[in-house]
């Protein structure tokens, strides 16, 4: 088993509030040096969680294979806590993709593909402004307003703030465990992306990730057939 105590105590401090993180406390190279304390199995878990949480646009798979791969990879994470952390991130990405997809012409609920517990609900409540999820997701009404107003950059910030708080809560509830390490690294990734991206770049990345989910979860292919038409 990895020496989680030594590793966690060797990690630098990240602010509780994402807005107060004005610079990274260490480079990725320095972070990787600390992460060598993880054994090979734990390093694989961390890499898998990072790839799912911070997806790369260059690694998209075609058709429904992407969503199926997400599910398989999430299922392979070794703890329920990590499955919930990563699953929530993918569910939020699915929800945002559904809002964008619905704005496109000639779209139908049955064509929408996504990850997690809300996908079927979204299909069933397709014509409702926020898919009838306001009562289940306390943040959704505000996010919906930002989306409707085209304030995509502000929306991405609010999403990141929410994810930051969720990750911090897990860190606080899991002391000196693999979950602590993974959530810290995922928070580091949120901070790194925020600090290296100017507003225009952040907006482009947000839109590109949404488009990638739409295109590679089977939606674009079905529409084409029907209408012929991701420091030192």
Note the beta-strand portion: under 5%
Helix segment tally: 11
Query: What separation lies between the terminal Cα atoms?
Result: 30 Å
Query: How would you classify the helix and strand content by structural class?
Result: mainly alpha
What radius of gyration results from the CA coordinates?
Answer: 18 Å
Number of structural domains:
1
Q: Give the strand tally.
A: 0
**Strand/helix succession:** HHHHHHHHHHH
Low-confidence stretches: 58-62, 216-232
What's the main sheet like? none
GO molecular function, one term: hydrolase activity
Pfam families: DUF2764 (PF10962)
EC number: 3.6.3.14
Protein name: V-type ATP synthase subunit C
Describe the 3D structure.
This protein is an all-alpha fold and 232 residues long. The chain has one domain (25-227). Helices cover 63% and strands 0% of the residues. It is built from eleven helices and no strands. The protein has helices spanning 4-10, 28-35, 40-53, 65-75, 80-102, 119-124, 140-148, 152-173, 178-196, 199-216, 219-227. Helix 3 (40-53) packs across helix 9. The longest helix is centred in the middle third of the chain and has 23 residues, at 80-102. The protein is globular, with a radius of gyration of 18 Å.
């Amino acid at each position: 088993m990895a020496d989680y105590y030594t590793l966690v105590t060797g990690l630098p401090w990240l602010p509780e509030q994402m807005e107060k993180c004005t610079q990274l406390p260490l480079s990725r190279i320095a972070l990787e040096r600390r992460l060598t304390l993880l054994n090979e199995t734990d390093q694989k878990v961390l890499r898998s969680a990072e790839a799912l949480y911070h997806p790369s646009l260059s690694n998209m798979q075609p058709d429904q294979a992407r969503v199926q791969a997400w599910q398989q990879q999430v299922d392979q994470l070794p703890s329920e806590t990590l499955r919930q952390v990563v699953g929530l991130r993918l569910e939020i990405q699915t929800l945002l993709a559904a809002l964008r997809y619905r704005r496109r012409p000639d779209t139908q609920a049955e064509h929408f593909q996504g990850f997690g517990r809300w996908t079927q609900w979204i299909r069933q409540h397709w014509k409702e402004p926020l898919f009838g999820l306001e009562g289940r997701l306390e943040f959704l009404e505000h996010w919906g307003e930002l989306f409707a107003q085209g304030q995509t950059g502000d929306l991405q910030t609010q999403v990141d703030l929410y994810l930051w708080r969720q990750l911090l809560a897990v860190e606080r509830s899991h002391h000196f465990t693999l979950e602590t390490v993974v959530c810290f690294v995922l928070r580091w990734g949120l901070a790194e992306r925020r600090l290296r991206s100017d507003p225009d770049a952040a907006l482009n990345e947000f839109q590109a990730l949404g488009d990638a989910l739409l295109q590679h979860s089977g939606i674009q292919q079905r529409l084409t057939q029907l209408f012929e038409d991701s420091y030192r």
